[in-house]
Amino acid sequence: MPPTRSAHGPGHVFAAQTADHSELRRFGFSAGAGVALIFGLVRPWLRHYPTPYWPWIVALLLWLTALVYAPALSFAFRGLNQVGRGFAWLVTLLLCAVVYYGLFAPVGLAMRALGRDALGRGFEPALASYRVPSRQRSRESMERPF
Fold it and tell me: What is the pTM of this model?
């Protein structure tokens, strides 16, 4: 199921996906089971609601459609796939922001406040070069490199 657009170009996150017959059939069975489980069993059990009938009807329709004519589920498959890709993009963005602003930025600010510079940056006009020569290693250091 290759994407219809390049995976490396702009908009690749929301590229439409195509699915074959067997994948649409699996989608129908999975979606029906998900609707029945979440809305037919778990939600009424958690909220102490009476068990509704509509999730079982929707699940039965999805299962029958998957058995009889799976390509009819392609529109729902593509739509849910797009929604899932959008959520994945959003969660990735938020997770990266939390890690950066919650971990890397405070550590960098603390190091700057303490005057520590791990890269050894600094401006010294008297130097001819900022190159740091590598240290010479002995032959014995390669016997156990790790």
Answer: 0.57
DSSP-derived 3-state class of residue 30: helix
CA atoms of 135 and 117, how far apart (whole Å): 21
Amino acid at 69: Y
- Tell me which amino acid residue 12 is: H
Task: Quick: pLDDT tens for 57-87.
Answer: 999 999 999 999 989 999 889 998 999 999 9
Checking 13-22 for CB contacts under 8 A at 24+ apart, the result is: 13/85, 13/86, 13/88, 13/89, 14/82, 14/85, 14/86, 16/78, 16/82, 17/77, 17/78, 17/81, 19/74, 19/77, 19/78, 21/70, 21/71, 22/70
Side chain identity at residue 36, one-letter code: A
CB–CB of 32/58 below 8 Å? Answer: yes
Q: Is the dihedral of CA 88, 91, 97, 103 positive or negative?
A: negative
- According to DSSP, the residues that pair with 17 across neighbouring strands are 3
Instruction: Compute the mean pLDDT over every residue in the chain, rounded to the nearest whole number.
Output: 85
